[in-house]
Every structure is written in C-alpha cells, then in structure tokens.
Design a protein that fits this description.
Length: 224
C-alpha cells in the first residue's frame, strides 16, 4: 500500500499517527505528492478530488479522504483499537473528528498561511479567523477530555486533534493569535498531552514538513 501526501497536511498526519499507534508505519510506503503539486496531472489522475491523503490499495485501487482511510486501517489493523468499545465514547471520538473536518480545519489551514505572510490580507484573515473560532467553539462545547481526548487511552480523536494543535501553535507563533484563548478545555488538553510521545512525534513530523515546504518555496522564488 502507498499513502500519498505530506506530513504538513493535518489529514495525512491523522492517518500516520493512527499507524504509529498501531505499530504499522512500516506496512505502508509514502511516495509524497505526485508531481509535487496538488493540481498536477499525475496527482489528479490518481485522485480527481485533488486532496491529500489518498491510499493506493494493494489491488491498485485508490481510496481518498482521511477519515475513510482511517476507518479502513481500523478494520485492517484492529489492534490496538483506537475507537472505544463503549458506544457513547466511540460516538464522542466520531464527533470530534467530524467537527474538526467540517468546521475547523479547512479554514485553519488558510489562516496559518495568511498569518505567516509578511503583509497578510487583514480582511481575509479576519473572515477566516471568525469562521474557525466558531468551529473551535463547537468543539469546546462538546469537549470533555480525561487523560486523552476521550477516556484514558489515545484514540482516533487524538490523532485528529494533534495536527490541529500544531496549526494552532503555528498561527500563534507567526501571527500572535492564540485561537484557543476562549477554549479553556482545549487549552488544558493541549497542556496535558504536549509532552506525550504521540504529540511530540506529530509536532516533529509536521515541523519538518513545514521546513521542507518553506525551503522549496524559497528556492522557487530564487529561480523566479
């Protein structure tokens, strides 16, 4: 199997962290993004949706969408289970992932890029910030972390939240905006898991990927 994408994508990193927890990262190859661009013909030939990650199955079929891939790996590698057996806890895991996917992450990626620019479009930045603050408010409302996001063991919810926290830190560092300032439960969760192996691994992966992207952009500007 081949998992296409890059660690800087919070969706790719969600899947990779799941494989990490299951001890299955070596079961999959990671060829990056075909053509090194999301709109490259090579990439779109595999996945016309144009997003990452997507998985090439052993049979040569392509499976897009991070949460679909996550569910596939839960069935393929059932141990350790990262969805709780308890139905209410399992539903909370699903809810966290769903709220992130629908109401937070799409605009959060754009905010991180805008905030890192020397002279960002303040109007566009403000619009996107208001959007993700609403989504973070939804997440905060339903959030009730214990040792981890749901219960006392890491779950798929943590695999989704850690990339979100990386982008929250990136926005704070580059733009001076603490988007969790009005989300005390999420802020407490961030402090609780920050030194865990799972969080450190995810943050390190994404930071290295960000450095690679910035180096490639700098090289392209130099050639322009």
């Amino acid at each position: 199997m081949k998992l296409f994408g890059a660690h800087l994508s919070p969706y790719f990193e969600r899947v990779w962290l799941q494989l990490h927890l299951k001890g299955q990262t070596d079961a999959v190859d990671y060829p990056g993004v075909p053509g090194n661009a999301l709109r490259s013909p090579e990439h779109l030939a595999h996945n016309p949706i144009g997003r990452i990650p997507y998985l090439e199955l052993a049979e040569g079929e392509f499976l897009p969408e991070a949460q679909v891939i996550v569910e596939h790996f839960e069935r393929l590698f059932p141990e350790p289970a990262l969805r709780p057996a308890d139905p209410p806890h399992a539903a909370r895991v699903d809810l966290i992932c769903r709220v992130l996917d629908l109401y937070v992450l799409p605009d959060m990626i754009l905010v991180a890029r805008l905030a890192s620019q020397p002279d960002p479009d303040r109007a566009a930045l403000g619009d996107k910030l208001r959007s993700i603050q609403s989504g973070i408010g939804y997440l905060e409302h339903f959030f009730a972390a214990q040792d981890w996001a749901v219960g006392d063991e890491p779950t798929l919810a943590d695999c989704a939240l850690i990339p979100f926290l990386f982008f929250a830190g990136l926005i704070q560092k580059s733009g001076g905006m603490d988007i969790l300032a009005d989300a005390p439960k999420l802020g407490a969760y961030r402090a609780l898991i920050a030194d865990s192996d799972l969080a450190r691994t995810g943050f390190d992966n994404m930071a290295r990927s960000l450095d690679q992207v910035r180096a490639a952009e700098a090289k392209a500007r130099g050639q322009g």
